[in-house]
Every structure is written in C-alpha cells, then in structure tokens.
Amino acid sequence: MFKTLTTAATGAAAVLALSATLAHADMPDEINFGIISTESTSALESSFGPFLNDMSESLGVKVNTFFASDYAGVIEGMRFGKVDVAWFGNKSAIEAVDRAGGEVFAQTIKDDGSKGYYSLLITHKDSKLNSLEDVLACDQTLSFGNGDPNSTSGFAIPGYYVWALNNKEPEDCFARVTNSNHEGNAMAVANGKVDVATNNTESIYARLAKTNPEAAANIKEIWRSPMIPSDPMVWRKELSDEAKQKIYYFFMQYGRFGDMEKVKTERAILASVSDGWGPFLASSNAQLLEVRQIEAFKDKVKAQNAGDEEAVKAAEAELAKLQEFSGAIGTAGY
Questions:
Q1: pTM of the model
Q2: Hey, what domains does the chain have and what are their CATH numbers?
C-alpha cells in the first residue's frame, strides 16, 4: 500500500513539474482549431465550445474555431497554415498528413471506453430495402446519398466494403447520386429525399437520436461495416516542439489528472463533445494504416477493371509496403 501511494505521489509531482515547465513554453499568439463538418456549424460550436475554452485557458492563448463547408476546407486550412490543430476522420487525416503537413498525435475514444465506430447504409423505416443484397440489385430506379469524398465512414469504408469488394460503383446501381455530410444524408433519408445513404453509428445513434429523435425514428440501418478506429487529432508538424508539448500535455491530462471535481467536470464536457468522448489516447500516423490499405486495395480493383497493369503493380507495391509497416507496428498500439 505504501509503495502504491508513494508511486502515485511521485507521479503526481512529476506531472506538476512538467506542467510548470510547459507553462513557460513558447506558443503562437493564437491556436486555430479545425472541426470537420459532420453536422451544422451551430451544433458543432455548441458541442466543442466548453472543451476549447478549457484548452485556451490551459495553453494561455486564444483558441479559435475553424469551420469549412466540407472536409477539404479544413485540410486546405491546415495546408496553408490557417489550422494548427484539427479533429479529423481517418480518411481526411490521411489527406492532412500527405498534403497538408499534418501529424496524428492523439486518438478520441467514446465515453464508454470503446475505441471505434461503424459505417452504415441507411434507408427510410418504411423502405422495402432491408439488406445490402437489396441495394446491390442495382435496378437504377433509386437515389443514393454518398458521403463527403474525404469522409472515412461516409465514403472510404462503404467505397471499399460495399462497392469495391462487389466490383461496382454507386453509379452502376442508382438513378441519382448526391454527396452530403452525415447530418444532411440522415435528414434526406428521414424526409424521403433519397432512398439510401451512407452514415455512421455516431451520427445516427449518438447525435441525431438526441437532437432530432423524430427524424432518427424514421431511419433504419440495413448494413454495418467492420469497426473503424476512432477519430484522430492532428497538428501541423511545423508547430514548435514547445507548442506541441504543451498541446499534447493538455490533451493527455484532460479528464484524467487533477482533483475529483476537475476530472468530473472535464469528463462531463468530453461526454458532450460530438458523439460523446472519453479521455484521449496517445496516437501516431500508424493509426491511418488500415484505411490506407483499404484505399490501396480500391486502387488495385479499379486498375484491374480498367486493364491498367502498371497501376495494378503500383497498387500492389503500396499494399506490400503498408503490410510491412503494419507488421512492424503489430498490435501493441499506435
């Protein structure tokens, strides 16, 4: 018992010492925090507001929210130095890492401790469609609400499991194909504007069920993907090491360190963010490996269908490289 208490006290002292050291770290005058457009700006502002206020107080600088009409806008914001830290999905994080100088540093988890979520196909509760097989009948009479091209659950995951593995494209099956964010697609299905749409468990069961239960009651799930790793947090690699250390400390201690009242308050704030978050986990770009492999496989299938042997070889080389990297990472975490 004494050893346990001593160890805990030593750990707490180290945390306090680190906090004091980082309090003097060089920081930008302001931090711009990018938020992907999963739902309306007003809903996102309300959801993230208390958390970003605490972030601002901890860092000692103003934290501004950065919104865009689509995922690409936040990616481009990071590319041109207008976004310093951002919440992304795995697919959009790949774009941020590859094209915008981003780097994954943390991972969200749910307030129940789960580390993933699921992509969905949804339709109206009264629809005759009840399964993926019904969708793949592809009679060209229905309409389809696809996701943002940079969305993991709205585009990349169904693009692989629903379309690539079945050697089809949405245009092969539907008379009309549109693109929207999760909220837009959910409302389009609930109101009978589209027959089938992509979505995810967070949007339907954690957000819409609370904000618009009448609409949620009009939606039924007809397909669910394998689990997708929870969303990454990404910062600009160009930030100073001192700034990264202070930002990292804020994320890792939030809802985890401090007295009971502090932890309780911060856990409640996290539970109100997005679909309900818990304390953050450390992460890295390795978190993106699974979605990268899915994207490479889709490229291979597309090249095979087009008879492009060079593109097939390039996709196979990419898959082999990703598999080697995945083997090196193993299952111990990111």
A1: 0.82
A2: 2-114+230-283 (3.40.190.10), 116-228 (3.40.190.10), 288-329 (no CATH)
